[in-house]
Amino acid sequence: MPRLRTLASLSYILLFLEASGLAHGRRAGLPRPLQRRDARLQLGDAVAQERDLAFGGLLARPGVGGKLLDRLHLLALDQVEAADRLVEIGAHLRFRLLAEPGEGGHGTAGEPGEVIEEVGSFGHGVGSNRRAARLPRRARRPYKLSPMILVTGGAGFIGSNLQAALAAEGHETVVVDRLEEASKWRNLARHPPDQIIAPEALHDFLARDPPLAMAFHLGAVTDTRATDGDLLWQSNVALSQRVWQWCARHEVRLVYASSAATYGDGRDGFDDDASLAYLARLRPLNLYAWTKHAFDLWVARALARGEKRPPQWAGLKFFNVYGPNEYHKIGMISAVKVKYDEAEAGLRPRLFRSDRPGVADGEQRRDFIWVGDVVAVMLWLVKTPEAGGLFNVGTGRARSYLELAHAVCRAAEREPEVEFIDMPDRLSGQYQSFTEAPIGRLRAAGFAAQFTPLEAGVSRYVRDYLGQPDPYA
Predict the structure, then answer these.
(1) Residue 75 falls within a domain, yes or no?
(2) Model's pTM, two decimal places?
(3) 3-state class of 451 per DSSP?
């Protein structure tokens, strides 16, 4: 039966108790939950309940594991009774208490996140060698040195770039996605997550109450040409509602993907105003945009009704994102990749003629943003739990498709020449001829990093990814 060992001497334990104001069972200064407790802890056939807390033994919190223990619980040597927390997170660094080899995982000292099913008391005096106590299953919670973060759509374009950054910072990550496309797994090849869960298994995963610190809900049907309203509603709205409600109940921070497509033709501006009054004025141009807008509205109504919300929430209105790992998107791939492929094939990059009066051919303008800048915003949110609300995620400067095509040609060392073609009927009337992200709210919330200019981002994409044998990030 696994046991805990102490790396401290009796004097070390006494010093700890003295520093905590708890030595020798002294009652002065104890937090109220520690003075009396209706704790029931099975030890063989004995059940301890409603007994005054005596001090002297130490027991690790149920469910801890990994390389270091995060906090201590005191036990009476004659009754083995649980106590509330005595020290804050970080005590594992101060007191250097380790699990036995194999406890909490399969490594030498245990791997983060695994659960110690049974623990033993230790201390001095009578009772220090009692049998290990089996704790109620509901009390067992794994402890993470680095928080577990959920990323739905984590094998997709933006999701896999976020996954790479989180993995580089040492976070445990759980990706919810499918790898059915022949090459989609390559988005994760250099930075595999700790777990990959199929979307249909997400409900069961959350029902197990995983120790999530944060969730990035990026998974959605993103095809602006999609016509199956039932599918998009279930994927983009109903699932998002369930994720929001779960995060609210379990007090897990949540960031979700909205879209600049919710602004429609832009006649009502591109203000990331989260009020119901403003959102109600927006008229998205396609089914995908409408479902994203529907969830923004649902969130606004839930907040207005005073319903429980996640401790931090942010909806990110992504503008035109480009960069590595978008290759599986086929018809929804960025203009940068499409123009590069045309230039590499020896063709002049093709642009749609304008279908709007007053807008010249090639002068349709969008806010193009490098995927690395999008990831920087999301990492900032991880480190800034007080920031929240709707945020535009763009550069704040619209650039023309003609400028983009010329930037691609220069990066690919081709002549900057283009060819204009008619806009397909399926896009006529649904095409955003202008988008630009006001980013005042993002700046006011504290995001200070500068965004990558279009020419620099295109050059980096072509040089470091598209022009390489392995174009994946």
Answers:
(1) yes
(2) 0.70
(3) coil
